[in-house]
Every structure is written in structure tokens, then in C-alpha cells.
Design brief:
The structure holds 2 protein chains of 2 kinds.
Chain A (H helix, E strand, L loop, with lengths): L29 E4 L2 E6 H31 L12 H66 L5 H29 L9 H10 L5 H12 L1 H8 L4 H6 L2 H4 L3 H12 L10 E11 L5 H7 L10 E7 L5 E7 L16 H8 L5 H13 L7 E6 L1 H13 L4 E6 L13 E7 L3 H4 L15 E5 L18 H12 L4 H14 L12 E10 L17 E2 L1
Parallel strand pairs in A: 5-6, 6-7, 7-8, 8-9
Antiparallel strand pairs in A: 1-2, 1-9, 3-10, 3-11, 4-5, 4-10
Helix pairs in contact in A: 1-2, 2-3, 2-6, 3-6, 3-9, 6-9, 10-15, 11-13, 12-13
Chain B lengths: L12 H7 L6 H31 L14 H71 L1
Helix pairs in contact in B: 2-3
Classes of the chains: A alpha/beta, B mainly alpha.
Chain lengths: 538, 142
């Protein structure tokens, strides 16, 4: 749905030169969602709250001045002299009324600007999505037309069938393979792709915000190309949009990729889970603590960290932290945190990393009704989202960083805060967020641009995906008093039992680290170096 | 028998007239000074704490954000400055009102003292009048 961009608010664009520019181009936090239609920088939202508070306070002060002067007034028809205090106090009253009026007006205008930013962003996104859908549908439909034309030739039926299948596969593959290509470059700079990687580093293409937006649109247009290749009219393709059916789009493309990719490519295996270690830790207090505790995945390293906190009433609460992709392989090796799991998760199939995490949760004794805060980075965000959905945890909250979860639904009532660096292409692999009608505003999305004022470094392929940028953002989030972020910090306190002690402090938590490995029939599974026993398979 | 002539106007009356319509008796001026002092002390209590709160309230005014550089942002900053200016003026006025209360209380103490002196003088004068009247009356009978 495309509509005209709404007019800017009374304040116009605070962050840039034009009304359509999203605010926060200078490293500021930009918050959207969480049940709201506004898009605004944390600073704008803070100013709005402060101005509202100031207007309320000024109203109270003015009322007190008025009452004080009335009570202490002369009465009885006597007049104030020029050197009496009351006339001056009444002048102060008038000034305070001005503060009240101007403060409320300014707060209202800031809110209107935030609403307009939100409306402009949604309109721009709709426009990009529609244009992308039309182009993708045309490309897919060209294959369909070619196939129909081929019917008139000898062996036309065979050619048409091949053409249709090819068109569908290409449509599915372009977006999927492109996305996988970006993803597969993440873990390392192996020699076969070294030249490409070097060129990409120098170009800074993969960490440019326009490329990230293009990638997001491309990924979201896969379903239209598929439907065009199947001969579905454009209007029909839009009606069958993935938001409504879930049959096509990213989920369908991932499923098709898995189905068409042969006997081993992108195919899942059983996984085995080991308790890799235990330790004690102080309770996390906010987003920065969660970000700092995300396991750094790698060969033989634990991928899941589970912290248990005994509450004063004897009930446990949990913090579950899941790391990102450790292996860019498209064929199952030993590591479940690979691209096989990524594609399987996007297709909402049966990713090994999700099964391993669910097994670790079961083995750690996490109850379905216990308060839990899940935190995941990159693939870890996909894993936590799927773990919450499949595990049936009823008191779960989630914090994801750099995860392509835009089109993955969460159960109702799960509070979710996602962070995306504007120049990070990995979250864009999740496509455009769901529309508001399909719960797209439920997730609180925190975005931040880190290379708008300074160029991205060329010594890393995806510098914007580096967890350091997300940790820095998490620290900024801890300093914010936005109610949506405050609410998740309260969930952390609830999970660690900090809210029960009165002092706001929690007892130290018991940490278990979990390492998962794929199990190949007939082969001995890899075992982590620090295995503490308790292996279970899933 | 003649009635005593009215007392001549006292020099305090002109200053009393500055803050009250018409001349008042010393008793009325003392009552007024007491009542007004009580009022002003109440007002002082209320306005002094309020002046502090309003002055502290300046921390609620958003500060300038150097990252916002657009024309709209400049307009926003201008309006925030306007709010800050009104609040600063309110705080200054409340401070001035509190200062005036102290001044008025001091003036009222002076006025009350003067009224008490006048009252005392009037009473003495009345006694003198009475004694003089009694003397004249006695001399008439003699």
C-alpha cells in the first residue's frame, strides 16, 4: 500500500535537512514499535517526556502561586502597593502559565514530528516494497511468458516446464543465494574468496545504508518473483503476499532452497548437547551486561549460556544468552551454528541450533512458566525467537542484536527489543518488518547509524555487524529512560530476582555453558574441550 | 460646659494612607500590621520553597542537541530557549517577591511601632486633657 508522504510536523525534521529523513543520523538511538506508530530518536522522546513533565510542574507551580496570593491577599477592598510582593508573585504566575503553555505545545509538536517520521518511514517502505515487488514480479513473469511461448514449438511442453521451474528456482535463488552469499562471507576470509572479500572491504559496499535497504527490499520481493514465474497476475501476487499466507516470501524461499538443494546441501542432522562448564556470576543489570555475556562462538566453544537465579520466594528465574553464527558452511559439518541452521530457521523448518538450545534449556531445568530473558546476537536472535515460540515459555522476554528476525512472529505477550545497526546487512536478510496489521509494531526496534559521519573501516568485511557496535549501542540503551527499554530492564530484574530483595540487588547466579555439535550417522560426534558431561541428543 | 477639641492629626497618618485608604486609628493600624505580617509570613513560607523548586525546575528544560542541525531544529531550539527564558523570569520574580516580603515585614514592624507610639501619645494627651478639664472645672467652681 502506497500513500502520499504526510506533511512534516510543526517541527519538521530535527535530524536532517528534509522532512522525509529519518532522524538519528549521527549515532543516536532511534526507537520505533513497541505498540507505537512513532519513529523518533531517543533524544526526541526524552525531550518530549521532559517537556510534558515541565508543563505539568509549571501548572502546579502556577496554581500554588495563585493560591498563596489569594490566601495571603489583603481582601476587604484594600489595594496592593507598588512595593508589595503580591504583584510580583502574580507576574511570576503569568510567566509560569507561559512555561506550561509553551512546554505542552512543544511536547505535542515533538510527538507529532515523531508520528510523522513514522508515517513517512512506513510510506517509504511501502513504496520501496511495491516497486521491488513489481520489478521482481516482472522478472519472474518474463520466465512464465517465455515458457508459454515455448509451448508452440516442438518439445514445447518440456521446454515450458523447464522454463517455469527455472524461473521459479531463479526467483527463489536470487534473493536466497544473494542473502546466503552475504551471510557466508561473515565467518572468515578463506582463500578462494579472498580477492572478492578484499574488493568488498575496500568498496565498503556491504556496510552502506543504501545497500542494506536494497538488500532488505530484494529479500522481501522474492515471493513476488516466485508468483510471477508461476503465472500469477500481479494483483494476485500482492493478495498472496507473504504477510498473509506465509507460503511464499522469505520463509517460502528458504523452504524451497532447502528442498531443491540436493541430498546434503542445507540438510539438517541430529545434534548432541554437552554441559561445557559452570561458574558463578553477578546478575546482569541491563542491556550492556546482556550484550557482554553473549557467548563468543567458535570451534569447540559453547554457543549457549544459561544463568539461573534463585529468587527470595524459592522460584528460579533465568537469563539465556545465545551466540551468533560460528561456521558459514552450507553443508552440515560439526557446528550447528552454521548457515544450514540459518536457512532452516528462516524457513521455520528444523534448525539444529534451535533444537540444541531447547535441549540445553530442558537439561538446565528451565520451567515453562519461569521468568526468562533471552538474549541473542546474529543467529542467536533467530534461535531465541524460535526457542520461545517452540518451547512454549509463557513468561519470556527477548533482546536480539543484529538478527534477521523482522518477519518472524513472536507469541503474543512476549516483550521484544531488537537492535539493528543501520549499516549492518545481516538484519536486512530478514526482509522488511511485518506490517502493523500483522504485529509489525509489537517489536520495539532500536536502530542506530554508526557510519553516517565517519567512513567505515576497510579492514573488516562487515564492520557494522561486529558485536562491539552492538555492545556500545546496548550501553546507550541503558542510559535511556524510554518506557519500552525501561520495561525490558525491569524484566531482567524480575528474572534475576532483583525486584524481590528490596535493595534492587540479586543473589549471584549459577552459570552453565552449553556446547552443541552435529551428529552424523556412523561418525563419532565432536566433543567440546571443556565438556562437563551430561551429553544429550536431539 | 464645652466638649474637648479633637486631637490634632499625627505625622504618621500620611504614611499609613500610602498603604490603606484613608487615615486609620492607631489601634486599627496595629491590628492591620499584625494581620498583614501574619499573611506575609505565610506567603513567605509558600513562595520561598516554591522559588527554590522553580529554580531547580530549569533542569527539566531540554538542552541543546548539537546533532540537530536543520532549520526545524534551530526553530525548536529557539522555542526551547523561550521556555527557558520564561522559567528563568518566573524564578527571578519569585525571588523578588520573597525579597519584598522581608522588606514589607520590616516596614510593618516600623509602622506598628509608630502606631503604638502614637497610641501612647494620644492616651497621654487624653489624660492631660482630662486633667486640664478637671482643673478648669475646679477653678470655675472656685
Amino acid at each position: 500500500m502506497t500513500g502520499p508522504a504526510p506533511a512534516p510536523g510543526a517541527l519538521g525534521a530535527l535530524g536532517g535537512p528534509g522532512p522525509s529523513r529519518t532522524p538519528g543520523g549521527d549515532g543516536e538511538l532511534v526507537l520505533s514499535g513497541g505498540g507505537r506508530t512513532t519513529v523518533a530518536t531517543d533524544r526526541m522522546l526524552t525531550d518530549t517526556r521532559r517537556l510534558h513533565a515541565l508543563a505539568d510542574a509549571a501548572e502546579g507551580w502556577a496554581g500554588r502561586v495563585h493560591r498563596a496570593v489569594e490566601v495571603g491577599g489583603h481582601g476587604g477592598g484594600l489595594r496592593w502597593n507598588a512595593d508589595d510582593p503580591e504583584p510580583v508573585a502574580m507576574q511570576a504566575y503569568a510567566q509560569l502559565r507561559q512555561v506550561q503553555h509553551l512546554g505542552a505545545e512543544l511536547a505535542h509538536d515533538l510527538h507529532a514530528a515523531a508520528e510523522n517520521y513514522g508515517a513517512v518511514e512506513r510510506a517509504n517502505r511501502d513504496r520501496a516494497e511495491n516497486v521491488g515487488a513489481a520489478v521482481a514480479w516482472l522478472a519472474g513473469h518474463a520466465a512464465f511468458v517465455h515458457a508459454v511461448a515455448a509451448l508452440a514449438t516442438p518439445f514445447g511442453a518440456i521446454e515450458a516446464l523447464v522454463g517455469l521451474a527455472g524461473g521459479f528456482a531463479v526467483a527463489t535463488g536470487v534473493g536466497g543465494a544473494f542473502a546466503l552469499g552475504v551471510s557466508a562471507l561473515v565467518p572468515g576470509d578463506a582463500s578462494p574468496k579472498a580477492d572478492l572479500v578484499t574488493a568488498l572491504k575496500r568498496s565498503r559496499l556491504l556496510c552502506s545504508a543504501p545497500f542494506v535497504r536494497f538488500l532488505r527490499t530484494l529479500v522481501s520481493s522474492v515471493d513476488d518473483a516466485e508468483l510471477g514465474a508461476l503465472g500469477v497476475p500481479f494483483v494476485g501476487a500482492r493478495v498472496l503476499d507473504d504477510d498473509d499466507t506465509g507460503w511464499f516470501g522469505l520463509r517460502g524461499a528458504a523452504g524451497t532452497l532447502v528442498a531443491l538443494s540436493g541430498p546434503t546441501l542445507l540438510k539438517e542432522t541430529p545434534v548432541a548437547v554437552d554441559r561445557a562448564g559452570t561458574e558463578r556470576t553477578a546478575a546482569p543489570r541491563g542491556f550492556a551486561d546482556l550484550a557482554a555475556r553473549i557467548p563468543k562462538t567458535g570451534e569447540g566453544k559453547p554457543q549457549v549460556r544459561i544463568e539461573k537465579y534463585e529468587h527470595a520466594d524459592g522460584r528460579p528465574g533465568w537469563i539465556v544468552l545465545v551466540g551468533g553464527t560460528a561456521d558459514g558452511a552450507l553443508t552440515a559439518g560439526d557446528e550447528p551454528w552454521d548457515d544450514v541452521s540459518n536457512v532452516q530457521a528462516v524457513g521455520q523448518l528444523d534448525p539444529g541450533s534451535v533444537r540444541a538450545t531447547l535441549r540445553a534449556l530442558d537439561d538446565a531445568g528451565v520451567g515453562k512458566d519461569d521468568p526468562i530473558v533471552f538474549a541473542g546476537y546474529s543467529q542467536g536472535g533467530i534461535v531465541t525467537q524460535e526457542a520461545i515460540t517452540r518451547g512454549g515459555y509463557t513468561h519470556a522476554s527477548q533482546f536480539t542484536m543484529g538478527s534477521p528476525v523482522g518477519q518472524m512472529p513472536l507469541p503474543d505477550g512476549v516483550q521484544d527489543v531488537s537492535v539493528e545497526i543501520a549499516e549492518d546487512p545481516i538484519p536486512a536478510l530478514g526482509g522488511e518488518p511485518l506490517t502493523p496489521a500483522h504485529g509489525g509494531l509489537d517489536r520495539t526496534l532500536v536502530t542506530r547509524s554508526i557510519y553516517s559521519d565517519s567512513p567505515a573501516p576497510t579492514d573488516s568485511l562487515l564492520p557494522a555487524h561486529d558485536i562491539a557496535g552492538y555492545r556500545e549501542t546496548a550501553t546507550m540503551m541503558d542510559a535511556s529512560d524510554d518506557p519500552r527499554l525501561v520495561s525490558l530492564r525491569e524484566k531482567i530484574a524480575e528474572a534475576t530476582g532483583a525486584g524481590q530483595t528490596g535493595s534492587g540487588a540479586s543473589a549471584p547466579g549459577e552459570v552453565t555453558l552449553w556446547h552443541a555439535a552435529r551428529v552424523h550417522p556412523g561418525a563419532a560426534p565432536a566433543v567440546s574441550a571443556g565438556s562437563a558431561g551430561g551429553r544429550t541428543a536431539r | 460646659m464645652s466638649t474637648p477639641s479633637p486631637a490634632p492629626p499625627l505625622p504618621f497618618a500620611s504614611s499609613i494612607a500610602a498603604w490603606s485608604p484613608g487615615a486609620l486609628t492607631p489601634e486599627a493600624r496595629i491590628r492591620f500590621a499584625d494581620a498583614r505580617s501574619a499573611q506575609l509570613e505565610t506567603l513567605h513560607t509558600r513562595l520561598a520553597s516554591l522559588a527554590t523548586e522553580v529554580a531547580d525546575g530549569r533542569s527539566l528544560v531540554p538542552g541543546a542537541n548539537p546533532a540537530w542541525r536543520s532549520a526545524s531544529a534551530r526553530a525548536y531550539r529557539g522555542r526551547v530557549d523561550e521556555v527557558r527564558s520564561h522559567l528563568r523570569r518566573a524564578a527571578a520574580l519569585l525571588d523578588e517577591a520573597v525579597g519584598r516580603i522581608a522588606g514589607r515585614l520590616s516596614a510593618l514592624r516600623v509602622e506598628k511601632g509608630a502606631a503604638q507610639a502614637e497610641l501612647s501619645a494620644r492616651r497621654s494627651l487624653a489624660l492631660l486633657h482630662q486633667e486640664a478639664a478637671r482643673g478648669l472645672e475646679g477653678r470655675r467652681y472656685e
